[in-house]
Amino acid sequence: MEALRGGTPATTPIWLMRQAGRYLPGYRSLREHHDILDIVRDPELALEATLEPVTKFGIDAGIVFSDIMTPLLGLGVDFRIDPGVGPVVDPPLRTREGLARLGAFDAEASTGFVGETIRRFRERSATPILGFAASPFTLACYLVEGHHERDFPAMRALLAQSEDLATQLLHRLTSVTIDYLRMQERAGADALQLFDTWAGVLSPAQYHRLVLPGLTEIIRSLGKPVIYFSTSSAHLLPEMAELPAAGISIDWRVSLSRARGLLGDQKALQGNLDPTVLLCSQEVMERKALEVLQELPRGDGYIFNLGHGVLPETDPQRVKQLVDFVHRNGLRR
Questions:
Q1: Distance (Å, rounded) from C-alpha 140 to C-alpha 174?
Q2: Domain ranges, ordered by start, for the chain
Q3: CATH number for domain 25-329, candidates 3.20.20.210, 3.90.320.10, 1.25.40.10, 1.20.1250.20
Q4: Alpha-carbon Rg of the chain, whole angstroms?
Q5: Which residues have a Cβ under 8 Å from the Cβ of 23 and sit 6 or more positions away?
Q6: For a FRET experiment, which of 34, 126, 266, 327 has its CA 20 to 30 Å from that of 77?
């Protein structure tokens, strides 16, 4: 939390995207008996998944176990999460009639189990807990495309052919995201992360016109610090500099020092070790992690993370080694 405020903690803090996931034995055991959405809907099971990496590895923040598609449960959208495929929306939403079929959204009524998981975490741990949501654009990509497709051609075609419909969809999802994140704030989330995973398919002009206003509205409507994350989006960093987010999470495709130069000193930075490095030897991993740490030698306003999520084939011991290495070798005040 000190790093998010731009300060210099006693040592570099670290948490990892997808730290509660398929590489962990406890989580794999849960998945043998429960569908992912069943775990999300059960606060005690979700708490178990949220706590596992925090207690095993000494990570400096938990992130509530959920899924970026969870708010769609409250909109009446028919979707599933297929192993090896990810979210599937059937049928996809590509017409005004489809948009009109979206139901009214009440975060407490339809997704209150996420808030309950956060409350239970606060009762069990003194470690900060992050809430999260997909950004409106990334959620729209799945709604329009129907599934993960490289570069989301259906979404980009909709923007070209019917930008007004796309804009209406984004406005609706902006309202949903605000309600959903405010619910997590009330439950006790210390900070919130917006996952805008697929914003990189946009041009800077599209991002500035279609995405930036909604993101700004979301962040300004919240009382807790917000971290914004996207991948393959280095070309959008000048536009991201306009966001009122407390922090920007950087993927491995651009250096932290370059990101700092483009974003300025007013935002915390998070990132950006390539997740595949955790598949390497401990020696290689530590060398690459040190390179990341040395990108920002002052260490202020910085949170160590990966450039995307932990890969399923990662050895849990390697995660423990990374956390210990960052705590030993990060800047100490």
A1: 10
A2: 25-329
A3: 3.20.20.210
A4: 19
A5: 310, 311, 312, 313, 314, 315, 316, 319
A6: 34
Catalytic residues, by residue number, are: 18, 22, 31, 67, 142
Helices (H), the chain: 25-33, 36-41, 43-57, 96-100, 107-124, 136-145, 153-161, 163-187, 204-206, 212-220, 237-240, 256-263, 282-293, 316-329
Tell me the average pLDDT of the chain. Answer: 95
- What amino acid is encoded at 318 in this protein? R
Statement: the pTM of the whole predicted model exceeds 0.85: yes
In which residue are the tokens 């009382």 written?
Answer: 223
Which pLDDT belongs to residue 333? 47
Provide the pLDDT confidence category of residue 332 given band limits of 50, 70 and 90: low
CA–CA distance, 66 with 181 (Å, rounded to integer): 13
Summarize pLDDT for 202-221 with one digit per residue, the tens.
999 999 999 999 999 999 99
Classified as helix, coil or strand, 41 is helix
Quote the pLDDT of residue 296. Answer: 86
Whether 181 and 131 have beta carbons less than 8 Å apart is answered as: yes
Q: What is the mean pLDDT of residues 58-69?
A: 97
Tokens for 331, please give them: 């800047």
* Percent of the chain residues topping a pLDDT of 70: 99
pLDDT digits (tens, 9 = 90+) for 286-312: 999 999 999 987 778 999 999 999 999
251 and 197 Cβ atoms separated by less than 8 Å: no
Look at residues 20, 62, 14, 60 and name the one whose alpha carbon lies nearest to residue 326: 14
Q: Residue 211 in contact with residue 202, Cβ under 8 Å?
A: yes
Question: Nearest 10 degrees: CA dihedral of 155, 161, 167, 168?
Answer: -100
Q: Torsion over CA of 107, 246, 326 and 333, rounded to 10 degrees?
A: -130
* Residue 52 one-letter amino acid: E
Cα 197 from Cα 82, distance rounded (Å):
19
Please indicate whether residue 84 or residue 331 has the higher confidence score (pLDDT).
84
Look at residues 332, 252, 310 and name the one whose alpha carbon lies nearest to residue 56.
Answer: 310
